[in-house]
Queue: 2 jobs
Job 1
Amino acid sequence: MFTTGELIERIRGGHFDAAFASLYCADAQGVAKQRARYIAAVEAFAELYGSAREVAVYSAPGRTEIGGNHTDHNNGIVMAAAVNLDIIAVVSQNEENVIRVKSKGFSAADTVDLADLAVHGNEQGRSSSLIRGVAARIKELGGQIGGFDAYTTSDVLRGSGLSSSAAFEVGIGAVLNGEYNNFRFTPVEIAQISQYAENVYFGKPSGLMDQTASSVGSAITIDFKDPQHPVVEEVAFDLSTYGLSLCITDTKGSHADLTDDYAAIRSEMESVAAFFGKKVLREVEEAEFFANIATVRAKTGDRAVLRAIHFFADCHRAEALRDAVRAGDIARFEKLIIDGGHSSFEYNQNAYSIKHPTEQGVALGVALSQHVLGDTGAWRLQGGGFAGTIQAFVPQEKLSQYISTMEQTFGADSCYVLSVRNYGAVKVEETL
C-alpha cells in the first residue's frame, strides 16, 4: 500500500506502465495517457480526503454486446466482450462504517451508512442505491463489509450503451471484495451481486450479461440457462487478424425516461413464457412456441410474440457467432452480426422509443453504417437500445470514412475505436 504521494511517484516513474499497457491494450502514447489519468485521479482523492491516506486503485471495464440482444434476462445465451474503457476508483478504508464515493463530474458524493442496508425507495435510479445494494448482498452472502472513501473517474460514458452502470456496481463490488474479503468472491459472483443491486435497489430489471462481461473480462459467451451458475466460455478474438476495427458510436440519445421501455421487453417475453406455464422463455420449447403462435398472440399481443421470435433466434446466433470466431470464418461472423441487428430492429423493436418517434439516433446510425460499409464489415445496434450506441466492425480501408461520417452526424469524439480487454474488474497493481 502507498500513500497518495507515494503512489503518484510510482505511477510517474513508470512502475505501472506494463499494467496500463495490458489493461488498455495501449501503445506508448496510450500508456502516457493512462499515467496522466491515474495521477489526476489520485490527486483528486488527496484533495478530497487528505494526502496522508494509504490508497489502492480498482478498475472495472465497460462492455460491448456482440450477440444475444436482450436475451440474458430470460436465461438466454449472449456473446459479449469487455472493452478498454473503464471506471477507476482510488480507495482508502475508513473506520466510520460509511462508504463515500465522489465521482468526477458530480457535485456531491454518494454517502451510504452501512448500518442501514434496507432498500430506500427514494434512492432508486441513483448511484447510492447501487452502493447500498452491493454491500447488502455481500453481507447476505456471508461476506464482510466496511467503510471506505473513494474518488472515481470514468471514460465509460453514461448512456453510451457500454454499460457504465455495470462498470460502477462491479467496481464497488471489486473494492469490497478486495478490501474486506481477500477476493473470496469469484468474478461471476461479483456480477450476480451487482445484478441484485441493480434489480432490487436501483429498480432496473436488468439481466446478468453486462455485469458478467465487466467482471470477467475478455470476449466471452455466457449461457444463462441456470442463472445461479452461468456457463462462461472465453473466446480468443483478435480483430486485427481480419483487418477489422471495432467501432462504437455514441448517438447521444438520452436514457432518462426509457426504463419502462427496457422493462417492457423483459415483461413481454415473460408473458409469452407464462402462457406456457414457464417463468422465462428459455424454459419454453421453441417448436411448441411456433406451433401455438395464433393462440399466444391473442393472449399476449403481437409485439410480445415478435420479441419472443427474436429471443430464440438471437440465442442461436450467439452460439453461431462463437463458432464462427473459433473457426476463423469472419464472413459468417459478419453476416450473423448484421442478421442480429435486423432482428433487434424489426422484431425486438428497440431501435427507438415509440414515445419519441422524432428521436431515432440509433436507427440513423445503423442506416449510415450500411451506407458507408455497403457489402463490407458489419454493423448493429447493441445494448439496451432505444438510445445509445451503434457497433460496427469496420475494414481498415474504410475506417477514416466511417469515423468521419459518424462524427459529422453525432458530434466530435462520438465514434470510439476500441479493443477487447482481457481483464475484468481488478485491483490495479504494478504486476497484474
Note: The two ends are 15 Å apart (CA to CA).
Job 2
Amino acid sequence: MRLTVLAAVSLLAVAASGCTNETLDTFDKVDVDITKVSSKTNYQLSSAVLGKLSSMGIDRSSPMLLRIFKEEGRLELWKADRANRFKLVRNYKICAWSGKLGPKMKEGDRQAPEGFYPLSKANMNPNSSYYLAINTGYPNTYDRANKASGTHLMIHGACSSSGCYSMTDEQMVEIFAFARDAFGGGQSTIQLQAFPFRMTAENMARHRDNPNIEFWKMLKVGYDHFELTKRPPEVNVCEKKYVFNQQSDKPFSPTGACPATTTPAALEVALGSYNKTYAAAYATAMQKYNGTVWVEPSEAQRKAIVADQRKGRELAYAPTGNSLDAGKLMTAREIAEQKRKAEEAEKRKVEAAERAVREAEEAKLAAEKKKVEEAEAFAADVAAEKAAKQAQGKGALPVPEENPGVAVVEKKEPKPFWKLWAKDDEPRKAEPVPTVTQQTQQQVTTEAGEQATRKEARNPATETGGQRVETPAEGAGALPVPGDNANVEVVEKKAEKPFWKFWQK
C-alpha cells in the first residue's frame, strides 16, 4: 500500500505555519434547545455553527475526525477545510467516562477504549436507548490481534457511562448531525482517535511510571503524525502493533511479521525535527517531575469532584469529571506514608472485623447460657410450687380414713393346686380398709362362701348326727356351722401327705 501525496501537501502547510499549532477556536457552548428538537436524527446545525464553519473555509458536508482525551475529559471535533487540512471546530466537555486511564482489555472491566477506530455509517445508531449513539467499532484490528474483548462501546447521550464516552443529549444531537452531514458528503469512514491524555512531553514524563506507558508510546506516533500533518494518519497493524503512514508493497498481517516499510521522505524529515524538539521538552519535564509520581484517581474520586452537578437531575445523570482535577503528584516519601496509613487502616479494619466476630460468638454463648439458666430456674420454681402444694395437702391423693363401721378382714389368697394338701404356714397379709364399693363386693363374696359351706355340710361325705365333720386344719376362711348341734364334734382335719412322703415318718 502506498500513501498519496497527503504527507507532502500537509507538510507544506505545516512549514507555512512554522510547525506551530493553530489557535484553538473551541466555541464549546452548544446552542441546542433539546425540548424544541422534533426529530433528533434530522436535526440541522444551527446558523451560528454554519456561519463559523464558513468563516473557517469549511463546508458543511466536508470530512470530519474525532479525538478524545480521557484525562482532560474532552472530545474534539475536527473538519477538513477547502485545502483538505483539518481544523478544530468543536471542543466538547465529556460528561462521563468510566474506569481509569488505559485501554480496554476485556468485557466488564468498565474501561473506555483507547486507540484508532474507523467509524462507518453503519456505526450510527439513531435508536439508542441513550438518546443517540455512535458505535466506536471496538474491538478493532489491533484489539482483536491482542485478544481484547468487549461489545457495545459507544459515544452516546444521557451522561451515564459503563465503558463508553457519554455526552449530554444537546451535545450528542449536534455530533450526530455533524457525522450525518460528513457521510452525506461522501466520507466513507470517520477516524476516532482515543488517547489517555494530550501526548505532550510533559504529560508523557508525568505518566512515565504508569504500566501502560509502552502502549501509549505506540499511540503517540499516530498522535505526532496528526499534529504534524493535520490529516488522519493511515493506520495498519502488524506484529500486534499499530503502524502509521507506512508504505509497503506487501499486505499487513495483524499477528504476522511486519513487511518491509518506508516512511515518506518529507514526513521523515518533519518527524526528525519534531522529535528533536520533543526530546528537549521531555528532559525539562523530567527535571520538573523528578522524585514524584502521578497518582491516577479512581472513577469514584472523579465523581466526588463533580457530585454537585447531579443535584436536581434524574438519577441516571452521572457526570464523572476529569482526572486532572482529581489526581495528584506525590513524592516517594508521601507515597510510602500513604501506603503505611492505608496498611494501618486495613489492619484496624481486620481487627475490628475479628473483634466483631468474637463479640458475636460471646453474645451467642451468653444467650445460650442465659436460656439454660432460665429453664433451670423455671423447673426449680415448678418443683418448689409442687412441694408447697403437697405440704398443704393440695394435689395429693386422698388417704383412706378408718371407718369404725367396717371391720378389717384379712383376705386369704387362693392356693395353687399343688399346695391344696400342704399346710398354710405363711402369715396372712392385712388387707387395706375397703371402700364402700369394695365392701359391697366383699359382702357378696362372703355370702357366696357361706352358701358353699352349708352345701358342704349337707354333703353325705360329712358325718352328722354324732359323727365327726372335717374342717381345714388352719380354720382360715371356715364359716361356723349353722345352728347348735350338740351331736356334732368339730375335728381338725389333717392335711394329707403328698405321695412322695408316704414312707416318711
Note: The first helix runs from residue 6 to 16.
